[in-house]
Structures are given as C-alpha cells and as structure tokens.
Amino acid sequence: MTPHRLAFDHYVSYGERIRHLATSRPDDVALTFVTHPDGAAVELTWRELDARSDSFASGLAARGVGPDSLVVVKLRNSVEHVLTTVAVWKLGACVVPLRSDMPAREREQILRLAKPDVVVSLDPVPGYECLTPAEIETRQDPDWQLADARPGKAVCSGGSTGVPKLIFDPLPWGNPGAVAGTADGHALEPLARTIGFRHDQTQLVAGPLYHNAPFGWGYWGLFFGHHLVVLERFTPEMVVDCVERYGVNFMFAVPTMMMRIMRLDGVADRDWSSIESLFHGAASCPRWLKKQWMDLLGPSRVRELYGATEAIGASAITGDEWLAHEGSVGKPLGCDLRILDDDQRELPAGEVGMIYMRPHYPGPTYEYRGSEPAPSTSDGFITVGDFGRVDDEGYLYIADRRVDLIISGGANIFPAEVEEALLEHPEVADAAVIGLPHPEWGQTVHAVVQPADGSSLTAEALSEFMRGQLAAYKLPKTYELIARVPRDEAGKLRRSALLAERTGSA
Predict the structure, then answer these.
(1) How does pLDDT run across 291-319, given as a tens digit for each residue?
(2) Which stretches make up the AMP-binding enzyme C-terminal domain (predicted)?
(3) Domain 308-398 sits in which CATH superfamily?
(4) CATH class of residue range 406-503
C-alpha cells in the first residue's frame, strides 16, 4: 500500500487530517475495537470514522461545544471514546480523558478543577451536563463547522502525593510543530524515529485511554494514518492474539504488561514477526525483563522512552544502544538536560540528583490546575521530581522520585532496585517496596509482594532468595504477601497510598 502522507509544511487541524484520510483511503480500516473477554472485533473504516465523528461533533455542537469548550470523556476504551475525542477536536475543543470508574471523591476533585461544559459518560454525574454517547446523536446542529481552532488535551494525575491535578497541554494538537515536528524542531519527530513510530503502521493500544501514553500515541497514530487496534481491556493473551491476527507493527507497554506477556506459556513460539517496535515507559523496567524481550524480538525492536506528561523534555534509547549503556533511558531529545542538587547546582557525571530539562519548543509546554508550577531554574530548566544521573557520554539513568526514596540509617535505598530483585523470583507476580517509619533507623525497607497464582511462596523463602541479590542494607526487613499489588490499568503504582494504608496516615 502506498503511504498516504501529508506534507506538513502548513497548519493542518486534526479534523482536516481525518477528513483527508477518509477521502484518500475511504475503505481502509481505521479502527478495530477488540472486546473483552471474547475477542470479538468492531471495525470502522476511515469513511465511517469521519462520518460518525461528524455526527458526534454535530450533537456536541448542539449542546454548545465549541473552540473554547472543555469536554470530559469518562468512558472505558471503546469505539465511542474514539468517536467522542475526534468529534471534540473537530470542534476545536479540549478533551479531558477520565477513568470511567474513578472513585467519587477523586472524580469530584478533578471535575471541580476542569469545570467541563459537558461530561460524556455512561453513568450520571450529578452537578454537570452529562450525556451518554447515544444521547449525543439525538439532537444535531446542522450548521456546525469544522473548526480551524487548535484543540488540546488535559490529563489528570495524582503524582506521588495522591493530590489530584490536571495537566493541560497548550501545544496545538493539529499543529505540525506539535504533531509532526517539522520546521520548528519540536521533539516529536526525532522521538518518533527513535521509538520506531512512523506513518501508516498498525498500532496496538493495550492500555487505558485515560492514561497519557496510550491516549497520546494512539491519537497521534490516527493523525499519522495508523490502523488502531484498541483493546477494551488488557490481558496478555489478547495482546499476543492481536499481534498475530492484525500484524501489529507498533505497541506501547508498561513493564507490568511486559512481564505478564513474557510469563505466558509458549510466548516464544508465537508469531512476533510483524513487530517493528515494542516501546515501553511510565515505570522502571527490570533489566532481566528487558533482556528477555530483546531475546524474543531482537534488540533493534525494543525501545524505551523517558518523559513526563508536562512535555518538558524526553529521552529515548534503542535496544542496541541500551546493550552498550545497560540501564540507561537514553540521551535527551528536543531538550537540554542537567542533574542538579538541592541548591540547583549542577552535579558531575555519575552523581545522582534531580533531573531538570529545558524544552527546545518555545513557550510553556504544560499548565497545572490544582498545583503550583513544577520547580524551575532562572534559565528555564524544569523538574517533575525524578532523580537520576548521567554517564560520561551523556546517557541518562533514572533513580526514584524523592518522595519514594528510602533513607535507612543514612543510606539511600531506591525502591525500584529492590523491586527488580524481587521480581526475579519466578513465584513473584508483582512487588512494591516502601519505607516504613522506624524510631532508630528513620525508615526500614518493607516489601509488599503478590505471589504468582498457585504459588506457596513464603516470606521466609523470599528472605532467603534476596540475601543473594542485594547488599544487606538494601534488603527488606519485612515482607507482606497480598492477593494483588494495587496498580491501575496503566500499571501505575502509588507508593504513597500503600504507605498511608500501613501507617494510618491517610
């Protein structure tokens, strides 16, 4: 098939791009939605995606949605999620994807910050104009127009503190500088090349669309002509089946997903030949797990990205580079990088400090609602609170956030390092490490462990295993075996919430 590319030398709105694809490849499949648990598929061609999102846009316009509006999309992964999001952007409005089952207290905090014009949800949301996808199409505005405005997105985050906030992306989603990265040198184009993202791929969206990475790369993929294969819900079995069934070229995964897939029986015997890039991020990936994926796919097809929703900068690394710089997340792309101490003095290579980045893109790259701006330097370097170091060649290595760092007897202990060692045990399905208060040592290392199904794993067996893995001061002093380590659908873990539950400080 001949790639249907745009010459991104002028402004192209998101709606214009969808319309162009509907005209140039009307009968090609744009979206395949795979239901859980049966794996049944619903398909939309580009013509159908354009026409149905037009209908959604007309229905939203009839409720007053326009370029200055904000629409909360409180839906699970679905065809309707895609139709609503594309429709909102056709109107030039801003989308806030929201977890459909978010606890009421946190949801209300986010909605008070967002002040949405419309909430699209299957369930009623008291106090707001709330529409189901079916209701959107019951009243239409025959005079609505495809907006030339520059729409946007905002995602909610609790970060490490557990206090919800909204992170607005002021970059224009239809702008070639933001979406394609051309003349102004925005970071997306070099990032896209490094992580194996190109025009006209088949992309698997296995994570929840309320999370920034699946949302961002999925909807950017549509702009670039991707055939999106969207799972209603992640299961490792469904991922492998869809890779084979649809010839997936590009997929994002978090390490929790990667581990569950790799532990499937017979995974090495499945057909992975279509994969051009498995790229991962959002959490620290154990080195042994990454090497297993490199053995399965080949190093050149395993990529890693480090960045933040705030878009202050990013780094990326290919598998071949990683083997020469094991544990690194790569060199900065589209930004400048410094490692600074508590007084914002630059640290030499090899020393761990706070990661500061300065984006090359002019102007602000994020706006918070519900939080003060991220700390910054007088010359424009910004941090979101991550720790790391660089080597002599400028490659970045991530440590843990300051709030997650455990200081026991004056020694710094990084939870991710202890978790990586725990997860090497074949009977450990998941693990989280936190620091419990201690009157003498300040903190002690506590491991919260989820045994594999059918395992008879004990704390004593884990303790014996760990003695050969880490220095004595890093070893967990206590172990807690639970049925499930509490992660969200995106694989994210809030250690602060785990700590609060165990200390009664919630």
Answers:
(1) 999 999 999 999 999 988 888 899 999 99
(2) 417-492
(3) Luciferase; Domain 3 (2.30.38.10)
(4) alpha beta
